[in-house]
Amino acid sequence: MQPRPVTDLPSIELSSVIFATIAFSIRVYVQKNGPIPFSRQILRINSAIYSIVSLFFVLQIGGLILRLLGTSSALDIQETAHKILLQPSTDPKDEALRYLYHLSKFWEYVDIFNVLATGGSIGIQFSFHHLTTPYLTYARALTSPAGWQIFALFNALHHMLMYAAIAGVDDFVGVDIFPYILPYTLYFQLVVGIAVEAWIVKVRTIGKEATWETWYPIWPNILCAVLLAIYAGLFVRDAMLEKKQKSKEE
């Protein structure tokens, strides 16, 4: 991959510092002066755009997977899994798409800024997730990309629906559908992602099929599994706290 912006750890770390500084500054400003004018409208507009961008990723990454499936010589599950999860894609669009997907995680910083600008609060789950996702995509989409498409596909699908909900699609159609769908897409993407990374680590390290020497380093798969597990734990924690709070209010 040719050198591109924010594709190395120092530049990603710098972005984290800038992100934290801007977020803290917005929070201090809002505490002193109140919500920033038009911030709710900007939040909805940005969410609508990001939902459309996520749809783009769903279609493009889905197309990559279908083309990989089309190159399998048989419908054998093991062969197909090896083809998709262990071998780097030779599709000419793969490298550019991986980079765009990585860049999209920096765009998500704006989501934090918008929420803070409206006077909203940022919990541990929300801040940790947005702060660390660029490191996850650096590891899996850029450093060790074999099989990156699976989590990215379901992650993009979840974000397409989530940001559509934030943009107010439910209000537009007059039916509350997203509150019922989003919990399933949220946990499904995480469970599938963790399972994929665990399978890749197992195959590459245990037994006669071990492929330590093949293609890419294995630490990104381990890092990805750990981060996804932390996200899942934080989401469960927030859900339990919310449920406890509701029971107290009742």
UniProtKB/TrEMBL annotation:
Superkingdom of this entry's organism?
Eukaryota
- TM ranges: 12-30, 42-66, 146-169, 181-201, 216-236
Q: According to its UniProt record, where is this protein located?
A: Membrane
GO cellular component terms, A-Z: membrane
The membrane topology term of the UniProt record is:
Multi-pass membrane protein
Predominant cellular place of this UniProt entry's protein: membrane
A single GO molecular function term of this UniProt record: fatty acid elongase activity
Q: Which Pfam families match?
A: ELO
Keyword list (alphabetical) reads: Fatty acid biosynthesis, Fatty acid metabolism, Lipid biosynthesis, Lipid metabolism, Membrane, Transferase, Transmembrane, Transmembrane helix
Q: Name one GO biological process term.
A: fatty acid biosynthetic process
Any idea what this protein is called? Very-long-chain 3-oxoacyl-CoA synthase
Q: Which organism is it from?
A: Crucibulum laeve
